Amino acid sequence: MNSKILWHLVRHWIGSSLQTLKLKGVLNSVRKQEFLTPAILQVLEKRYPNFEHLHLQETNLRSLSFDCLPSTLKTLELSECEIPLTWFKSSTTKTKSLLKLENLILNKVSSFSNQHLEIICSQSCLKTLCLSGTYRINDIGIQKAVPHLKGLEHFKLNECNITDITLHLIGCHLKHLRTLALLDFHYLTDAGLACLSGVKTLEKLWLEYCFCFSSSSISTVCVSLPALNYLNLNGIFFEGQVIDEIRKSLPHCTVTNVFSNTDNVLKNK
Q1: Biological process (GO) annotations (predicted)?
Q2: Which of 7, 148, 205, 237 is deepest in the core (most CB within 10 A)?
């Protein structure tokens, strides 16, 4: 697909009830000219008042201004995209920002930085924030973002450079959090996990492949969370009947502890 075809589709073939649009760019292709243009985004904003969810995959956004995005968006999802250093910052000549944006989902956006995180959080009211494969994000970035995330309900972190400091910040600032997913962190400790006891609204907690938490700390923290109804401990090896003891301590909570085929091979060695 090129910009001409997409332009024709947007203007003549897509119904006015459009709510979600998913596009795959040419970032990993031999073709280098992206099809998403400011003119197309402008048409999407004017012709489709219900357009709320934009999912871009493998798209080079370096030549596209953040100001071009439709102000109707509630969900922005970027997968394996490239963005410039100042992308989320509105220009001085145009103050429009994504005031309606509630959900930001990033997967393997390697150029996404602490500066990006602070800017987008400060000019929107996010309810969902998913940061996966964003290795530039660290404790400093989380520290600058959390004052703007008072209404955050769903938070996912994976492949970020965070420590127990981030867990402390979550416990202190994110008092309305309902879902927290921590995936594949091997250096977070019981001291950090204990900080989550202050998030009394937490309903679902993922500690998938987080090997450094002790079973006693997991039980103690989860017992202190009155709303918790789901605990994911997938990929964590517990000896003996430990996982059964955790389940007994949480009678009103579903606890999962499953393994991939590779995990099972390692477990049985």
Answers
A1: SCF-dependent proteasomal ubiquitin-dependent protein catabolic process
A2: 205
